[in-house]
């Protein structure tokens, strides 16, 4: 036991000093009588040997052959001396036997625990964590203990050991003190991931408990959304989300929204779209923006947000980034359609932007009735664009989405059939390649009519394409088609004559096959 060990040391000291105590065995009663004398109390105050003070104090508590530390027996000021010499585990024992203790003694214990916490050179991390836990356990209804615990927790927030920084964060949360929220938010930028996560969870819990804390935390955290580190922005955005839920005043929401939008589109998509953590940080910012829009009933904010988000395509990102960018746009769109804003990028003069938009379009298309109608309308509008490259991109967009939806397939066939008469040869070729793939069966009236119209067009490339398409879509017994193709065997353009002859030959072979089958 601690008391017996220290008393043994006291006897050795007294023998060394020539004390009469060394000549006989000292009983517990004798020691208690000795310690309680006024003369010994005077010596206590002036002795500089720590273990003699500790042994005298402990001797006060010896009852019935075993050690019981009694707070009531400690003279004023002696509890602090005792607490500074005990180990953490012994302090726990002391606290366990301290029911009904005096205020002065409780403060002394707090001072001792605070000293252990502050001694980063001699005390082990485990001892300091235990001391912090013990100190936090003494705070109920005691202002002095609360002050010591808060100060000790603040000091741990800047400790060199990550585990103790985490302990300080959790202690501040347990104490419910919001004054150190700004200091806690600094740990969202800590180099240790566990510390960052602990800070995030502690601040989120603080924000959800108290509206004033949410306001203070939100004002500090929003500044961190400018960080160039994705991890810092991710943790900060999650904390800010809790602040928005708890405290969404109109004055703050505008500041939050601007900072979140900036964090959402920060940097070049080609640089961040390959990084999953960067993607997560931006998606988290979008989630909080949706929260703000819902609380403020700002539908316009969501529409503007989607337009701003689609700007990530304006740099012409490479193929390796498309899947992540598509995921980002789907998160932004949520209940809206991202297809329309992606289709708008098909009108870009930059071929890399059009290429990226075509690659991402099928990834963001969900196929709902409303989305299908909007997307169809957008692509049809682009089909009549003044730029041949844009008209070709519109046909490519139809081709990419046609397998996903029957209505889009029909619209794609209609657009491709109309493009057979386009003034640009590249658009015609693209349409000619699409039509046979979109046809469900030969002899489709609208398609055949469009091909015949192309066959009679003034431009040679239209007539050539018309003949090629008729060979693949016309019925073998359509005499109107064969007669029109026959007339083109005398066309002034050699390419048209060759295409018409080949088309007639193909239809003749098809007709012979049908005769054999019948």
TrEMBL record:
Gene3D superfamilies xrefs: Leucine-rich Repeat Variant
Protein name: Uncharacterized protein
Superkingdom, natural source: Eukaryota
């Amino acid at each position: 036991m601690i008391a017996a060990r220290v008393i043994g040391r006291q006897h050795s000291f007294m023998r060394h000093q020539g004390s009469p105590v060394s000549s006989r065995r000292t009983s517990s009663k004798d020691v208690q009588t000795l310690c309680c004398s006024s003369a010994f109390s005077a010596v206590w105050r002036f002795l500089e040997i720590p273990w003699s003070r500790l042994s005298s104090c402990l001797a006060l508590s010896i009852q019935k052959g075993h050690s019981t530390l009694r707070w009531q027996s400690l003279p004023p000021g002696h509890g602090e001396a005792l607490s500074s010499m005990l180990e953490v585990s012994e302090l726990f024992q002391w606290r366990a036997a301290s029911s009904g203790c005096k205020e002065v003694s409780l403060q002394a214990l707090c001072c001792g625990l605070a000293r252990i916490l502050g001694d980063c050179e001699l005390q082990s991390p485990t001892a300091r964590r235990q001391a912090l836990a013990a100190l936090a356990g003494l705070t109920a209804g005691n202002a002095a203990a609360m002050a010591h615990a808060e100060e000790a927790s603040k000091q741990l927030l800047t400790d060199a050991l990550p585990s103790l920084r985490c302990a300080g964060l959790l202690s501040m949360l347990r104490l419910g003190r919001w004054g150190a929220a700004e200091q806690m938010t600094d740990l969202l930028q800590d180099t240790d991931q566990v510390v960052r996560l602990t800070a995030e969870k502690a601040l989120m819990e603080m924000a959800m408990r108290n509206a004033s804390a949410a306001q203070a935390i939100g004002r500090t955290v929003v500044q961190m959304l400018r960080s160039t580190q994705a991890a810092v922005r991710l943790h900060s955005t999650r904390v800010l989300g809790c602040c928005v839920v708890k405290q969404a005043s109109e004055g703050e929401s505008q500041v939050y929204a601007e900072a979140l939008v900036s964090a959402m589109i920060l940097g070049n998509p080609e640089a961040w779209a390959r990084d999953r953590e960067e993607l997560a940080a931006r998606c988290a910012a979008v989630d909080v923006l949706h929260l703000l829009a819902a609380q403020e009933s700002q539908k316009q904010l969501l529409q503007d947000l989607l337009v701003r988000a689609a700007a990530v395509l304006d740099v012409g990102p490479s193929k390796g980034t498309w899947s992540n960018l598509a995921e980002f746009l789907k998160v932004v769109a949520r209940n809206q359609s991202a297809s329309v804003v992606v289709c708008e990028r098909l009108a870009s003069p930059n071929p890399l932007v059009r290429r990226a938009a075509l690659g991402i379009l099928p990834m963001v298309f969900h196929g709902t009735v409303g989305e299908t109608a909007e997307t169809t309308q957008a692509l049809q509008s682009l089909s009549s664009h003044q730029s041949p490259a844009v008209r070709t991109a519109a046909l490519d967009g139809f081709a990419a989405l046609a397998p996903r939806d029957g209505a889009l397939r029909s619209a794609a066939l209609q657009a491709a059939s109309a493009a057979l008469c386009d003034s640009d040869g590249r658009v015609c070729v693209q349409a000619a390649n699409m039509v046979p793939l979109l046809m469900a069966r030969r002899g489709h009236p609208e398609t055949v009519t469009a091909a015949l119209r192309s066959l009679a067009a003034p431009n040679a490339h239209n007539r050539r394409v018309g003949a090629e398409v008729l060979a693949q879509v016309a019925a073998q017994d359509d005499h109107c088609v064969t007669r029109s193709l026959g007339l083109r065997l005398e066309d002034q353009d050699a390419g048209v004559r060759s295409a018409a002859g080949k088309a007639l030959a193909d239809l003749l072979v098809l007709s012979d096959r049908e005769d054999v089958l019948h």
